[in-house]
């Protein structure tokens, strides 16, 4: 948890309760595999240290290597009931973590605990894991 001054007011930030701060209020969250696709598609060569470190990170933690599978995972995030129950931050974290069990996902993403039932979450996780398993 951190505090940031915002127009004279100290704002509490806590990802476990989805208090991400004003900068992220309306942000569209990408998961690591989407960032990898964007960096790979960059038209101009970028050899800056930050770019290289970012590329190394997303390469190491990329869960979905096939761009078609990445699109399918995103499409699953935008389907009901997931889309209406969870925030973009939560769905991106689910894609990044690739949890196998609803209980594990709720332990790692505390904000899920009272928002989605285990069966619905497990169905989404199974769909995502199936996509991961069958990518070529």
UniProtKB/TrEMBL annotation:
<dbReference type="InterPro" id="IPR006590">
    <property type="entry name" value="RNA_pol_Rpb4/RPC9_core"/>
</dbReference>
<dbReference type="InterPro" id="IPR038324">
    <property type="entry name" value="Rpb4/RPC9_sf"/>
</dbReference>
<protein>
    <submittedName>
        <fullName>RNA polymerase B</fullName>
    </submittedName>
</protein>
<dbReference type="GO" id="GO:0000166">
    <property type="term" value="F:nucleotide binding"/>
</dbReference>
<keyword id="KW-0539">Nucleus</keyword>
<dbReference type="InterPro" id="IPR005574">
    <property type="entry name" value="Rpb4/RPC9"/>
</dbReference>
<comment type="similarity">
    <text>Belongs to the eukaryotic RPB4 RNA polymerase subunit family.</text>
</comment>
<dbReference type="GO" id="GO:0030880">
    <property type="term" value="C:RNA polymerase complex"/>
</dbReference>
<feature type="domain" description="RNA polymerase Rpb4/RPC9 core">
    <location>
        <begin position="22"/>
        <end position="135"/>
    </location>
</feature>
<dbReference type="GO" id="GO:0006352">
    <property type="term" value="P:DNA-templated transcription initiation"/>
</dbReference>
<dbReference type="InterPro" id="IPR010997">
    <property type="entry name" value="HRDC-like_sf"/>
</dbReference>
<dbReference type="GO" id="GO:0005634">
    <property type="term" value="C:nucleus"/>
</dbReference>
<dbReference type="Pfam" id="PF03874">
    <property type="entry name" value="RNA_pol_Rpb4"/>
</dbReference>
<dbReference type="InterPro" id="IPR045222">
    <property type="entry name" value="Rpb4-like"/>
</dbReference>
């Amino acid at each position: 948890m951190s505090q940031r001054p915002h127009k004279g007011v100290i704002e509490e930030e806590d990802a476990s309760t989805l208090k991400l701060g004003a900068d992220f209020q309306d942000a569209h969250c990408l998961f690591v595999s989407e960032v990898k696709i964007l960096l790979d598609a960059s038209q101009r060569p970028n050899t800056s240290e930050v770019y290289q470190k970012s590329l190394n990170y997303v390469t190491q933690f990329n869960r979905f290597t096939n761009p078609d599978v990445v699109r399918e995972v995103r499409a699953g995030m935008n389907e009901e009931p997931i889309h209406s129950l969870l925030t973009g931050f939560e769905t991106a974290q689910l894609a990044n973590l690739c949890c196998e069990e609803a209980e594990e996902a709720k332990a790692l993403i505390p904000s899920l605990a009272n928002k989605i039932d285990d069966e619905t979450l497990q169905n989404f996780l199974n769909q995502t894991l199936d996509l991961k398993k069958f990518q070529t």
